[in-house]
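Let us practice reading a record.
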Amino acid sequence: MTTEKNSKKIKENPQVTARKEKLAALLSVGVNPYPNNFKPEQTLAQVTDTYGQEEDVDKLDAALVKCVGRVMLHRHFGKLTFATLMDESGRLQVAVQRDHIGADLYRDVFRKVEVGDWLGVEGSLFLTKTGELTIRVNKFQILAKSVRPLPEKFHGLEDVETRYRQRYVDLIVNPDVRELFRTRSKIIRLIREFMENRGFLEVETPMMHPIPGGAVAQPFVTHHNALDRDLYLRIAPELYLKRLIVGGFERVFEINRNFRNEGLSTRHNPEFTMMEFYQAFADYKDLMDMTEALITHVVCEIHNGELVVEHQGRKIDFSSPWQRLTIGESLVKFAGADAAQMTDRAYLLAFAEEKGVKIDKDWDDGVLLLELFENLVEEDLIQPTFIIDYPVSVSPLSRRSDANPDITERFELFVGGWEIANAFSELNDPADQAGRFKKQVESKEAGDLEAMHFDDDYIQALEYGMPPTAGEGIGIDRLIMLLTDSAAIRDVLLFPQLRSVAKV
């Protein structure tokens, strides 16, 4: 606990103290430093676009503009001050002359303006000797006084941890970051438009679940006081979306947050964005084709028709067709396994030992295969690759293959060494689903915190009849990372979760 005595020892930043003194000085002469009565008539970019090529002095002088912006730079020359304003659209220089606005106003008010303050300005336009378009200020108004200085001019905010913790400052001083989040918004819009153009209905399902389900993950738990019951932040919307398929909606999708109580890493944040969608009368092969079309479309739109994208120094080619491999085939191709012995348990155990992969000998063959894949292959899947036909034991919601009951009609998409999507032909046999839920419950009782619960209501929904269906989840954050050359998931989240900072 911070005592009053200790708090007095913490000295305020001298720049903050000086700014607060200027704030007090403005108040003393009757200036409201936080008004809300100035309405801009043009953005800074609109002024530049309209008059940036104009050279006729008379036309510029006759053009009256009314703009707002944050002061990013100012230079005093006695009776004249040049300042650079920035709004969401861009930057533009303004010039304030003492003799033009009045000596008292210039001294008592304008000279109290600093980098970081928001200004409203009115005036005409002119070109400086260097040809820079500039607003000659006739009137100005302080709209918000900044009592904290921005990071050192020209250097921006470079400390990564500070950038994440103070994203608002990061956005002010780093234009590339603002552009990244505009790109994020565009990617989500493109995905939404693609889905709607294919006849999918966007829906919203609960984020608090009485029973967590739809994925193998550890949930966050909360308590609802009025109901006096525990609820779980959703780990996936899957079981609710499939209830809608039962109810008669044949194509549905949702873009929203999921929550998983897992560790932090460059690819994991406990709160993340996914799109899940379900299509009746389709199978996992249909969704592979659709996924390839969707992501190719987004890549083209974001990269101006180019399908080769650079991510962290590696080139990723999204051109069709994307390769499709079973887990066994991927182990042969990328880890040197013997194709003829992929169903031989003794061989797989020996292969794991040879490769230094730690395994539990009590695992079934499906879990063993998946562990080998995740350790020996996954990171090498740089080019878009569908890994298909997962074992039943690691796919509790997937439909069994009619040709081979030991595998499911499931795929995962890997790009850049990351899992981007997970999809399968849905299990719609209520008896089979109930049996798999029971096995998950047994795993949970044995200590697996990520195993699924038994969802009676979902089984009941299936008993009303769910048509043949395929469904998929796409990790939006990881896709955005790939398309914006971002190294960590925190780069593409406005406010990522971070570890607590120790308080002094």
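A brief commentary: The mean pLDDT is 93.
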